[in-house]
Automatic annotation (TrEMBL):
<dbReference type="InterPro" id="IPR006575">
    <property type="entry name" value="RWD_dom"/>
</dbReference>
<protein>
    <recommendedName>
        <fullName>RWD domain-containing protein</fullName>
    </recommendedName>
</protein>
<feature type="region of interest" description="Disordered">
    <location>
        <begin position="81"/>
        <end position="100"/>
    </location>
</feature>
<dbReference type="GO" id="GO:0002181">
    <property type="term" value="P:cytoplasmic translation"/>
</dbReference>
<dbReference type="GO" id="GO:1903833">
    <property type="term" value="P:positive regulation of cellular response to amino acid starvation"/>
</dbReference>
<dbReference type="Pfam" id="PF05773">
    <property type="entry name" value="RWD"/>
</dbReference>
<dbReference type="GO" id="GO:0031333">
    <property type="term" value="P:negative regulation of protein-containing complex assembly"/>
</dbReference>
<feature type="compositionally biased region" description="Acidic residues">
    <location>
        <begin position="241"/>
        <end position="256"/>
    </location>
</feature>
<dbReference type="InterPro" id="IPR016135">
    <property type="entry name" value="UBQ-conjugating_enzyme/RWD"/>
</dbReference>
<feature type="domain" description="RWD">
    <location>
        <begin position="9"/>
        <end position="162"/>
    </location>
</feature>
<dbReference type="InterPro" id="IPR040213">
    <property type="entry name" value="GIR2-like"/>
</dbReference>
<feature type="compositionally biased region" description="Basic and acidic residues">
    <location>
        <begin position="257"/>
        <end position="266"/>
    </location>
</feature>
<dbReference type="GO" id="GO:0034198">
    <property type="term" value="P:cellular response to amino acid starvation"/>
</dbReference>
<feature type="compositionally biased region" description="Acidic residues">
    <location>
        <begin position="85"/>
        <end position="100"/>
    </location>
</feature>
<dbReference type="GO" id="GO:0004860">
    <property type="term" value="F:protein kinase inhibitor activity"/>
</dbReference>
<feature type="region of interest" description="Disordered">
    <location>
        <begin position="218"/>
        <end position="266"/>
    </location>
</feature>
Length: 266
């Protein structure tokens, strides 16, 4: 196999496929070296519509002297580019302050404050992605074939799939956190279930702590101007039977005829 010819031909093919994305560092054989900047298509999906960054992969290929009978050296560097300019950022900060919502207890509403698509970074995924490429080269038996286009396509597909898996998981965890917060807030209103026994126990303890029985007694005495109440008189044996009371009341009354006579003499 003419390795120089194989590598030169593949580089020309890649130039035609990626005219704007490919950057040749060294075109002379051996050790041909070039970069491909691969933009990921993420924001087109509804669940990532609020994404404010352009994620891309900078893929560096170096061809060993006997490539394609030997796998190329591959280095992947994730890149993030903001889709907003500085003026937009300032406007968004002002808008965010206006859009912040609070619950009935003054807590910031959690869900409205986090842009989940922007929270995902590819940095931690790169080691896993490199292993996937090595497995693909072996499992798909790419050794001996021009493989760069297949690897680039695989990188794009794997990165986009991984991103949406992470976003779905992040959304799930976020929903759990929101539900946890909501249950915690609801618990403040629900409180502990009250039974007859627990209420009576609480009432006795509360009245003792607040000295309510003594206060009520004092108020009763004040209401009678210091005189004994009927109950107190009864308990102390000072209440005569009803018949005696009635007789006393009849004896105290003046005859009606005497009252009339007194009025006529006036």
């Amino acid at each position: 196999m003419d390795y120089k010819e194989e590598q030169t031909q593949e580089l020309e093919v890649l130039e035609s496929i990626y005219p704007d994305e490919l950057d040749i560092k060294k075109s002379d054989y051996p050790n041909i070296n070039f970069d491909v900047t691969l933009n990921l298509e993420l924001s087109d999906e509804p669940m990532a519509a609020s994404l404010s960054k352009q994620h891309s992969m900078l893929i560096n290929f170096i061809f060993p002297e006997n490539y394609p009978d030997e796998a190329p050296l591959i280095k992947i560097t994730p890149q993030e580019i903001s889709l907003k300019d500085e003026d937009d950022d300032e406007d968004d900060e002002d808008d965010d302050e206006d859009e912040i919502e609070f619950d009935d207890h003054g807590n910031k509403i959690l869900k409205g404050l986090q842009n989940l698509p922007d929270m995902i970074s590819f940095k931690d995924y790169i080691p896993e992605l490199q292993l996937k490429l090595e497995e693909q080269i072996e499992n798909d038996m790419l050794i001996g074939m021009q493989m760069c286009f297949a690897l680039i396509s695989s990188i794009k597909e794997n990165c986009e799939s991984w991103y949406f898996e992470q976003l779905r998981e992040l959304d799930r965890l976020h929903e759990l956190e929101v539900q946890k917060r909501e249950k915690k807030e609801q618990a403040k209103f629900i409180g502990t279930k009250v039974t007859k026994e627990s209420y009576l126990s609480w009432r006795t303890k509360f009245r003792n702590e607040m000295n309510l029985d003594q206060r009520d007694e004092l108020r009763r005495q004040q209401a009678h101007h210091g005189r004994l109440t009927g109950r107190q008189m009864f308990e102390q044996g000072l209440v005569e039977n009803e018949n005696e009371n009635e007789n006393d009341e009849e004896g105290d009354e003046e005859p009606v005829d005497e009252i009339k006579e007194g009025i006529q003499n006036l």
